[in-house]
Design brief:
The complex is a heterodimer of chains A (674) and B (210). Chain A is mainly α and 674 residues long. Chain A is 75% helix and 0% strand. Chain A has 29 helices and no strands. In chain A, helix 4 packs antiparallel against helix 22, helix 5 packs parallel to helix 21 and helix 8 packs antiparallel against helix 9. The longest helix of chain A is centred in the C-terminal third of the chain and has 47 residues. The radius of gyration of chain A is 28 Å and the shape is elongated. Chain B is mainly α. Chain B is built from 8 helices and no strands. The longest helix of chain B is centred in the middle third of the chain and has 36 residues. Classes of the chains: A mainly alpha (674), B mainly alpha (210).
Chain lengths: 674, 210
């Protein structure tokens, strides 16, 4: 047998012996001691590699029975059975955890839409001029894709297949390339909608909505730090990440655009001329118009953003009956813009009480008169705004609007300057890249933003948003599969054959995703069942109290406690998976937080950020093994580990930054949910 | 023997997969409910109860399925290094020590719980006039019983492994990270990966640390 095994086993034996030595004699043992024994044994039990859910369940039942037995031997059995089934049932009927299977399902569907190669290719072309272009594109692709799917293993494997050979071919250092893929792939468990945050919310009793709003800041900060590091490194050490040769950067124009390109080097001006002028040889007028509309999308977007900003900036100060106003807005939006797709109805419809389900009828009745009153004067103005914007908060009468603040004009100016610069340099190649992004990056980004936006702005509960997101994921998969089959389909009965093959493949995708979802949810939720039985017994024995006393007697300052907690979680992240850490060990930390005046929400953000390191800390980092599985054979595991280390350093910097400036995470939830 | 084990595996898998379709209906139900509430202004009081029941049934009934595919999370830092016989021995001991008592208690407790619920024909405690809850609570002992059955099969597997020195095979199932499928999805062939190997070697700063 190998040395490590003996080493591990002897450590565990030592722990068990220590436990029994430290325990007082059986006669002097109190229930609290039993609780501590239970905690020590569970650590050993988990390390032995038995499915954790059942270790927890078995141990919980046994020690719980001992606890009851010490009080009243006669009814102990009945009591522990009751406790057990109550805990299990509370997990089964948990209205927070229900979002887990839905988000997981959405993730599997999006993963199987097979859009990642297009996503990577278009981002790679879009970032071609940035130093370290491929690494930057890799991190962005990972961040987006991992956010939508949340499956670290699949993201790292896919990027290992796509981006790793591409980077090696471009002469990138193996370590840097491996680090970018593994670090980027792990972002998915931090950036919402992440399952980790739902599990934490369920354990700590923190609103998942607030956690999502809070995790935006740290998540994007971490992604930005990664990208910043790569860019700086590429600038300082071009030998590690040589710039791409011109052949890798060039964008092949389709024939239509090649013909149109004769109209001038600027795509915007060229399309304008082609649209208004007499026409171009070999290009249909309709397709020119289509291209021109695509060109206008950034402009429309900027106008929409400015419109929304204006609404916010000049919204009347006394917005007390938000429910009524939002109702009115929703109604008007629906009327004014029927073209808003069905997906956006979920968004556009807004009931500020959407968090409680079902929405109370009385609130709606009360809101109705306000709604109609507010609707009339605002209708004309809204019709204009509603086309561009999807956040209908603007049903207030014009007269009550506040004067436009100066900062709005600054934003307005910035928007205009942005558009001018954009269209000044809007070459045909850029236009083509933009179109590629439009078909890969934006659908995914819009799906994520819709799901998150509706949660964070309180339009839907996480459960509802997850379900609609899963439906959106299914549509995304259908759309991408359809276009893929469309290209390869034979000209004869093209439509019906494409529809048939797509439907068949989609059936397979949904089936596989459903099976995987069932297994993943069973894994997480059974762990939850086991752990809630365990922690009930632990509390019953008074183990929690002993820990509380012990920690409080150490007389730590909040900062010391926080550092201690994070170090413990960091160490736990080394041998354990994040599910186990959150489900088993968080219940021990959470009751301590009020003593130190720490917001459980803030603590949750730190934990989520901290657990990022769990995926990257050698020698058990899962991400490294997934990447190794698809790497060329000369890439060693050690090289991958070495590549991950700088990114782990960045994670620790991010953790410190978040701790020193809590506003990075807390600003958004505090602003939104005062 | 192996056939019997595989048969129980198949039963667990079949049940788990049958119930996994609940995720599709759950998605459709919630999406429809959202649409119905906001667009048609016609919410259904029973929807929330049904969602909860679908979710609870989904994961409970998939428990045995997950166990049959070895999908429950384990701390495998050390376990992965153990030789099969040691793995099997530890598993066997812990199945007898934790799993069997825990799950037997679970089925027993669930039986009492469900029986009490049936006795009073328990309704929803969330909505007035909500749907009946006793079938939902019956899921607990049923899921527990299937889990127990699968657990016994796993115990036999441990014994077989102790004898043979190697784990008996399991049926294939859809994998979360199926490298071959992912390769096909992004059109990468093994030869492409092998081709990339030369860059690692020629650039010289990749593989073996110098």
């Amino acid at each position: 047998m190998r040395k490590e095994v003996w080493f591990g086993l002897s450590i565990m034996a030592a722990v068990v012996i220590m436990l029994f030595v430290l325990m007082p004699a059986p006669s002097a043992m109190t229930n609290g001691h039993l609780g501590l024994l239970m905690l020590g044994l569970i650590v050993v039990g988990i390390m032995l590699g038995f499915p954790t859910a059942f270790t927890l369940m078995g141990m919980g039942v046994f020690f719980g029975w001992l606890a009851y037995y010490s009080v009243d031997p006669k009814i102990a059995t009945r009591q522990i059975l009751d406790l057990m089934v109550q805990r299990a049932y509370s997990v089964m009927s948990n209205d927070v955890l229900i979002a887990i299977p839905l988000f997981v399902f959405m993730g599997y569907l999006v993963e199987r839409a097979a859009l990642i190669d297009r996503l990577f290719k278009s981002l790679h072309l879009a970032t071609a001029r940035v130093p370290g272009a491929l690494a930057v594109a890799t991190i962005v692709t990972c961040a987006i894709f991992a956010t939508a799917t949340g499956i670290v293993g699949a993201v790292v494997t896919l990027m290992g297949l796509l981006a790793f050979p591409a980077m090696l071919k471009a002469g990138y250092n193996t370590k840097v390339a491996a680090g970018a893929i593994t670090a980027g792939g792990c972002l998915g468990i931090l950036i919402p909608p992440s399952v980790l945050l739902i599990v934490y919310g369920a354990v700590a009793g923190v609103s998942v909505v607030k956690l999502y709003a809070g995790a935006f800041g740290p998540g994007f900060m971490l992604a930005a730090l990664y990208i910043g590091y790569v860019i700086v490194l590429a600038k300082l050490r071009p030998d590690l990440m040589p710039p791409l040769p011109a052949s890798e950067r060039s964008v092949a124009l389709p024939p239509t655009l090649q013909r149109l390109a004769t109209k001038g080097s600027n795509a915007f001006a060229g399309l304008w001329r082609a649209t208004t002028g007499t026409g171009t040889a070999g290009v249909q007028k309709g397709s020119v118009l289509g291209q021109f509309l695509v060109t206008l999308i950034p402009a429309l977007f900027v106008v929409a953003v400015l419109g929304v900003t204006w609404q916010f900036a000049t919204a009347p100060a006394a917005l007390i009956d938000t429910a009524g106003l939002v109702e009115a807005g929703a109604k008007n939006t629906a009327e004014a813009s029927e073209e808003l797709s069905s997906a956006s109805t979920a968004l556009g419809d807004s009931d500020s009480s959407g968090l409680q389900e079902p929405p109370s009828e009385t609130a709606k009745d009360a809101a109705a008169p306000v709604a109609t009153d507010a609707a009339k004067p605002a209708a004309a103005e809204l019709a204009k705004a509603a086309v561009a914007e999807k956040t209908p908060i603007a049903a207030a009468p014009e007269a009550e609007r506040l004067p436009v603040p100066t900062w709005f004009w600054i934003v307005f100016g910035a928007g205009v300057v942005f558009l001018v610069v954009l269209y000044r340099y809007w070459s045909w190649e850029r236009f083509e890249v933009f179109k590629m992004l439009l078909s890969s990056f934006f659908p995914l980004a819009i799906l994520i933003l819709m799901v998150l936006g509706s949660i964070v702005f309180g339009l839907a509960t996480p459960t509802e948003a997850a379900a609609v997101g899963a439906l959106g994921g299914g549509l995304l998969a259908a759309g991408y599969r359809f276009t893929a089959h469309w290209r390869t389909a034979s000209p004869k009965d093209k439509v019906s054959s494409t529809v048939r093959t797509t439907a068949k493949e989609l059936g397979g995708i949904v089936k596989e995703s459903a099976f995987l979802t069932a297994k993943t949810s069973a894994m997480v939720c059974w762990l939850f069942v086991g752990s809630s039985i365990f922690s009930a017994s632990f509390a019953l024995l008074g183990g929690q109290e002993i820990i509380n006393h012990w920690v409080l007697s150490m007389d730590l300052t909040p900062v010391q406690f926080m550092i201690l907690a994070q170090v413990i979680i960091f160490l736990l992240g080394w041998p354990l998976e994040w599910t186990e850490i959150i489900v088993i060990f968080m219940p021990i930390f959470i009751p301590l937080l009020p003593h130190f005046n720490i917001d459980p929400l803030f603590f949750g953000l730190l934990v989520a950020l901290n657990l990022q390191t769990a995926f990257l800390s050698p020698p058990v980092a899962m991400a490294a093994f997934y990447l190794k599985g698809v790497s060329p054979k000369h890439v060693t595991l050690n090289a991958i580990f070495a590549g991950m280390l700088p990114f782990m350093g960045i994670q620790i910097i991010a953790l410190i930054l978040l701790y020193v400036f809590p506003a990075i995470g807390m600003w958004l939830p505090q602003t939104l949910y005062k | 023997m192996q056939n019997m084990l595989l048969f129980v595996d198949k039963v667990s898998t079949w049940i788990g997969q049958a119930f996994s379709w609940l995720i599709v209906s759950l998605t459709v139900l919630i999406s429809w409910e959202v649409f119905s509430r906001y667009a048609l202004d016609h919410p259904h009081a029973w929807a929330f109860d049904v969602m909860i029941m679908m979710y609870g049934t989904l994961f409970m009934m998939a428990g045995a399925y997950t166990l049959s595919k070895n999908g429950h999370v384990r701390g495998d830092v050390l376990y992965g290094f153990f030789p099969p016989r040691l793995q099997a021995g530890l598993d066997l001991a812990l199945y007898l020590l934790f799993f069997i008592p825990g799950v037997v208690a679970f089925v027993w407790a669930g039986y009492i719980y469900a029986a009490e619920s049936w006795a009073i024909r328990e309704g929803s405690n969330i909505t007035a006039d909500g749907p009946p809850y006793y079938p939902f609570k019956t899921v607990i002992p049923i899921a527990g019983a299937f889990l127990l059955l699968q657990g016994i099969v796993e115990i036999i597997r441990c014994v077989m492994c102790l004898r043979a020195g190697d784990w008996p095979s399991r049926e294939e199932d859809v994998q979360e990270v199926d490298v071959d499928k992912l390769k096909k999805m992004v059109h990468v062939k093994d030869s492409d990966i092998a081709a990339a190997d030369k860059y690692v070697v020629t650039h010289g700063h990749g593989g073996e640390s110098k």
